[in-house]
Design brief:
Blueprint: H1 3-25, H2 30-52, H3 59-75, H4 198-205
Helix pairs in contact: 2-3
């Protein structure tokens, strides 16, 4: 070890002794008290690690360290008990391990604009298959019946049936053989213009 390293170690040891003496007399400043508290917290961590790994721990040393840390806490020398090596909180989380506050009551996502429609899936897209081991739910047991409706419940009336489409009229039968198209009407008995009356027509036929 070089002379410089020896001098540095001696100075550190002397400073530690001075801080310890001042702390025992209650004359140490906040910075010195914080350093002393850090040392005791480290010793407490070492004792806790030894105890967690099944190695022997001196109960007297554990009680001494705990008593010293309690004194530092009462003096205000331990400003925070936050872990210094914990992972940073995820985005959106609040410090202290708490999740982001919930939205206010009645809050809902804004509705889509009028006329908005979801875009269609890309060409060739197929729904993903169910996971391995998935099975459809079993059918209801034999003899199972749906529970009856509550008392006073009335089923809604059935929807009105749509109007029946009128059937097309059947086509008329074909005319008989020799039919000329228009039925013959006997002329009326008028002879003012020289038209034959019905009696004349009957005479002609006879």
């Amino acid at each position: 070890m070089s002379f410089f390293e020896k001098a540095k170690a001696a100075a550190s040891e002397l400073a530690q002794k001075a801080d310890t003496a001042l702390a025992n007399q209650g004359l140490a400043g906040p910075a010195a008290q914080g350093k002393q508290a850090d040392r005791y917290l480290r010793d407490l961590g070492v004792l806790a690690y030894l105890q967690a790994t099944g190695r022997p721990v001196d109960p007297g040393e554990q009680a001494r360290v705990m008593a010293a840390i309690g004194d530092f806490e009462r003096q205000g020398a331990i400003p925070s008990f936050a872990l210094q090596t914990s992972a940073p909180p995820p985005p959106g989380a609040v410090a202290g391990g708490h999740a982001a506050p919930p939205p206010p009551a009645g809050y809902g996502a804004p509705p889509p604009p009028a006329g908005y429609a979801a875009p269609p899936p890309p060409a060739g897209y197929a729904a993903p298959p169910p996971p391995a081991g998935y099975a459809a739910p079993p059918p209801p047991p034999q003899g199972y019946a749906a529970p009856p409706p509550p008392q006073g419940y009335a089923a809604p009336p059935p929807a009105a049936a749509p109007p029946a489409t009128p059937a097309s009229a059947p086509p008329p039968p074909p005319p008989p053989p020799g039919w000329t198209g228009a039925a013959e009407q006997p002329p009326t008995e008028t002879d003012a213009a020289g038209i034959k009356t019905r009696d004349d027509l009957e005479g002609d036929r006879a």
